[in-house]
Amino acid sequence: MLKLVEKLTDLNARFMLGLSIICLLLAMVLVSADAISRKFGYALPGGVPITELFVAGLVFGGIVYAQANGVHLHVGILDGVLPRRGIVLTDYFGLLVGFVAIGIITWYGFAQAFDSWLSHEASDDKIKVPFWPSRFVLALGSLLLCLQFVLDATRLYLTGKMHRSLGNVDSAT
């Protein structure tokens, strides 16, 4: 079971890292091209809304990757005073709070993406860039973050550790 959790975590992290890298590169190219074209008095049509799509992928890809590798938010202030069992319980509590909060974002993100798609909501630019792709990326990224919370809770149950060992990142240290 642990091997399956690790494989799914790796797959989730690699997919979102790849998405994040692609979005970063595309956003850099688009922003650079827009900045250069503005020097010559011409703005790229649709540059800003398309960049927003890439930023959504960049942010959620990075968050999922960080959570999968144990370098996302962890406050260890109680780790020195709580017994091992208390640390595990606070880890479970943190995963539950994260899952609920991001689950709400996921639910509303998919609802907004669907509404945006049905209403053909688009930017007011020369090129009508639809808003639903960036909303869908937000919803998909938050869904994969929820999946990562479930994988982390399963790993915590199976090993007693929050994350795979990456230096001193473990919550057990």
From TrEMBL:
Residue span(s) of domain Tripartite ATP-independent periplasmic transporters DctQ component: 28-156
Membrane topology term: Multi-pass membrane protein
InterPro entries according to UniProt: DctQ, TRAP_DctQ
Transmembrane regions listed in the UniProt entry: 43-66, 87-110, 136-158
Keyword line: Cell inner membrane, Cell membrane, Membrane, Transmembrane, Transmembrane helix, Transport
Major subcellular location class: membrane
A Pfam match: DctQ
Subcellular location: Cell inner membrane
UniProt key word Membrane: yes
Ribosomal protein as UniProt keyword: no
Family, similarity comment: Belongs to the TRAP transporter small permease family.
Quaternary context: The complex comprises the extracytoplasmic solute receptor protein and the two transmembrane proteins.
Main function: Part of the tripartite ATP-independent periplasmic (TRAP) transport system.
Protein name from the UniProt record: TRAP transporter small permease protein
